[in-house]
Amino acid sequence: MGIKRYKPITPTLRFKVSLDYSELSKKEPEKSLTAPLTKSGGRNNKGRITVRHRGGGHKRKYRIIDFKRDKIGIPARVAAIEYDPNRSAFIALLHYIDGEKRYIIAPESLKVGDTVTSGPDAEFKVGNALPIGLIPMGTRIHNIELKPGKGAQIARSAGSYATIIGREEKYIIVQFPSSEVRKIPSSCYATIGQASNVDHKNIVLGKAGAKRHLGIRPSVRGVAMNPVDHPHGGGEGKVKGYKASTNYTGRVVKGEKTRRKKPSDRLIIRRRNAEK
To answer: Of the CATH numbers 1.10.10.10, 2.40.50.140, 3.20.20.210, 3.40.630.40, which one belongs to the domain with range 3-201?
Structure first.
């Protein structure tokens, strides 16, 4: 997937960089695999803003993605590689030989007409899903489960992948894109290859309006607010806040640990923020 640059006939286009979607198969999604997607504007069921800087944006349909890959041993043909507005990676439409259709996260280099399958007996090739314990060391994988049968949770965004770096009894040691090293049960499924749309990181929107189309509203610096609105607010002249670096709720950030202890912490060998 290439990238497009534009002649600077307007200020917007001077720096804009977008993807060339000519390689994608079609525009309309598979109707049976879509669902309505309502917008919350960052508000909870009481109408209070719980996530700031959200609202507006283009209307979307949700594409139902198969993160479990639980059609064991049934081959499927890749019918299309499509754009999904709800995620950064592209998605692939699979037609199984029993007639069922499903979407999956498309791996890099997967093409229309390829055949993919899942299960312990699946062939070792890009797009196939296998228990992580059966995948050779050093392999790039994505769509990784953390609990058997729960569905993929890790390495699902554009261009991301994890690497198998070791084995330990019933666990496989995996290095994540964040540099975290973690033990995963060997029965968890993962898909071979790297997630598609590697050039997503090169996109330059070019104007504020493009951000609004994505449903993201403007953010205001804390130091530009009044004391009642943010811990960094107020002061005479340019004052970078009278309190420590905090967010708007007062929680200390920028280096301070805020993660709560979890039972799964025992599976983490190296944290993502550890010194390399």
So the answer is: 2.40.50.140
